[in-house]
């Protein structure tokens, strides 16, 4: 018996946002139907570094997926990636190890695809402008996923590190025909944006922008922040927005904006809408053009499970990767 080894380039070679968004929609529908096994995320803190374990099984025939990842905030100063990860797929019946995948690339791609699904469901159909706050690897996947579901003509970029913003802007220009503007502040970036993706590694409870800069009709994907204290969006904004999360239980303990909004009394747990309820028709999507919508993501294991299973199946079909015997 062999195990398929998939590198980051292997994962990317078989990945498409359209397929990934469909897979995630199906996975979250399964979650609402009770067809998902997903234990709580395990977290070990070693100084400022977090080591996380995430596991899930979606549906009845899919593989069981386990991801081991680390988040090291000081890695930027070391010229190392913020996130390192590996993903293991096991046969749900026999427990046989089917595949090992490089996990950081898969994490970035599935996080982007998750914002793509949220944008498809929540952003105005006529949205044409996008602001991206942050200029790392996640910013690239956010852009690609949003462009897969909306016709983006103009992109505004802001990063706390101007050189990274300039580098990212050049990459955007090489990948699309959208006009790109680098801004000096986050407020400048969102001033003309219909859709905003927050993809930062902030650890601060101080939001990236003031609440007064959030206009009617905007849609936000907030996927960054390194812990449950970090806030990319002003928590008060949740009180006047339609706020969607992956899983209410996870958001209540891990999403900084949600935790602070509850403390301030501007929202309640019952007002948080699970995205699976929208996918399955139990809850509405955007109700009107003026509504402010927020998708707050903390990342849950079924995202990894859905995308890893998809990538594995496509890699088998395409003959991508290397088979090795772990028992040889």
From TrEMBL:
Gene Ontology CC, one term: cytoplasm
Matching entries from InterPro entries are given as:
NAD(P)-bd_dom_sf, ODC_Mu_crystall, ODC_N
Which terms under GO biological process does the entry name?
carboxylic acid metabolic process
**GO MF annotation, one:** oxidoreductase activity
| Family assignment from sequence similarity | Belongs to the ornithine cyclodeaminase/mu-crystallin family.
Protein name as it appears in the record: Ornithine cyclodeaminase family protein
The source organism is Trinickia fusca
What lineage, starting at the top, does this entry show? Bacteria, Pseudomonadati, Pseudomonadota, Betaproteobacteria, Burkholderiales
